[in-house]
């Protein structure tokens, strides 16, 4: 109980810290006409002091969870959580980036700094501090938006291309066909060539034969949203797609298809309420490169949002063969889900062979009641 209180307070503090930064900004007389050049950056002493105060207070609070009044020691998980949790406290580890991000003229157009935002988010500084400026929109209006989630082409005018090396979807189709060739992606999600494949219609049959209705779900790391698109056109299922704009406008691509992109990193708590989703699918973004504590928290958050009887679908999760037995299977086992499908096979590409990796495709059903 005391831990819960402590951590609620910590969250509050993190929010307060965010506001402090905004306050700092408003009270500052410094107005920058243009985004400042990346180097060299001079951090004003008072901002550093603010950041140090925030850091010291957070450290103090984190430390104070082990005060002597309590009889039991602080659970290891909680301490861990304070380091990996998305409570904006990670922002204080990147004062240079944060200062660049918060350097803008209030009530005018925000600097176009998507790359900076993405870097902060990937470093765990999410949610980002709020800003009192207006986000930039593309220069030309989009003449028409596709109603079909598999349009022949995505509208280029929907995207501000300045930060990307490609300047059109046609270019992305050439350079990144895995994500941007919508039809190739579609076929790969529908095919059954090995045990590792689970075509969408087979999954829906599995659910139907268990009398389980699928209407709502989240596709974690869903790229350009092709899984959500298939679920929509074939089954009227509403899927949210989490995606980041790493080197390409993934969020815009998903939205241009009439689907909902969630701009959240893997360490972020899913922004939906407990027990509301019928399905959570983890695509190839969820793999062994995710730090174990983050992965474990992610699974528990997936469990939180799934309804009783809902499904967790791991699509070609990969890891070292030994780790699957010793680490991941026990971690997944702790959820207490029913194994509806569990298929493991060697990963036979060069890096898979070199590292002795295996793929796992699994469908797991959450217990109906706990
Ligand atoms: C999806 O919903 C629409 C409108 O309610 C309906 O006409 C259509 O038959 C549904 N499609 C499927 C595959 O259920
Ligand atoms: C998978 O790889 C392991 C070790 O690299 C090997 O011993 C095993 O025979 C392979 N299994 C298949 C089905 O190829």
Automatic annotation (TrEMBL):
<protein>
    <recommendedName>
        <fullName>Methyltransferase type 11 domain-containing protein</fullName>
    </recommendedName>
</protein>
<keyword id="KW-0732">Signal</keyword>
<feature type="domain" description="Methyltransferase type 11">
    <location>
        <begin position="219"/>
        <end position="313"/>
    </location>
</feature>
<dbReference type="GO" id="GO:0008757">
    <property type="term" value="F:S-adenosylmethionine-dependent methyltransferase activity"/>
</dbReference>
<dbReference type="InterPro" id="IPR013216">
    <property type="entry name" value="Methyltransf_11"/>
</dbReference>
<dbReference type="InterPro" id="IPR029063">
    <property type="entry name" value="SAM-dependent_MTases_sf"/>
</dbReference>
<dbReference type="Pfam" id="PF08241">
    <property type="entry name" value="Methyltransf_11"/>
</dbReference>
<feature type="signal peptide">
    <location>
        <begin position="1"/>
        <end position="16"/>
    </location>
</feature>
<dbReference type="InterPro" id="IPR053223">
    <property type="entry name" value="Prob_Methyltransferase"/>
</dbReference>
């Amino acid at each position: 109980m005391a831990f819960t209180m402590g951590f609620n307070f910590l969250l509050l503090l993190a929010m307060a810290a965010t506001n402090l930064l905004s306050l700092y900004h408003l009270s500052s007389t410094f107005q920058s006409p243009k985004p400042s050049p990346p180097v060299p950056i001079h951090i004003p002493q008072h901002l550093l002091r603010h950041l140090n105060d925030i850091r010291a207070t957070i450290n103090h609070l984190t430390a104070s969870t082990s005060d002597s009044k309590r009889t039991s020691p602080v659970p290891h998980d909680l301490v861990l959580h304070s380091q990996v949790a998305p409570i904006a406290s990670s922002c204080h580890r990147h004062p240079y980036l944060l200062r660049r991000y918060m350097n803008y003229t209030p009530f005018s157009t925000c600097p176009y700094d998507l790359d900076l935002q993405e870097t902060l988010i990937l470093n765990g500084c999410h949610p980002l501090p709020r800003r009192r400026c207006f986000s930039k929109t593309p220069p030309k209006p989009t003449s028409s938006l596709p109603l079909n989630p598999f349009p022949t082409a995505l509208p280029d005018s929907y995207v501000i291309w300045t930060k990307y090396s490609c300047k059109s979807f046609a270019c992305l189709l050439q350079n990144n066909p895995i994500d941007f060739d919508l039809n190739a992606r579609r076929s790969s999600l529908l095919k059954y060539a090995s045990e590792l494949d689970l075509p969408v219609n087979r999954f829906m049959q599995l659910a139907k034969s268990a009398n389980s209705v699928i209407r709502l779900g989240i596709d974690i790391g869903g790229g350009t949203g092709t899984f959500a698109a298939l679920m929509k056109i074939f089954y009227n299922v509403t899927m949210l797609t989490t995606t980041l704009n790493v080197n390409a406008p993934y969020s815009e691509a998903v939205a241009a298809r009439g689907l909902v992109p969630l701009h959240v990193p893997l360490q972020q708590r899913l922004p939906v309420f407990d027990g509301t989703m019928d399905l959570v699918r983890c695509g190839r973004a969820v793999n062994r490169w995710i730090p174990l504590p983050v992965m474990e928290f992610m699974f528990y958050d997936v469990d939180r949002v799934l309804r009783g009887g809902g499904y967790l679908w791991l699509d070609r999760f990969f890891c070292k063969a030994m780790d699957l037995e010793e680490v991941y299977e026990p971690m997944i086992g702790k959820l207490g889900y029913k194994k509806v499908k569990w298929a493991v096979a060697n990963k036979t590409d060069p890096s898979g062979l070199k590292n002795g990796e295996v793929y796992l495709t699994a469908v797991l059903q959450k217990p109906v009641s706990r």
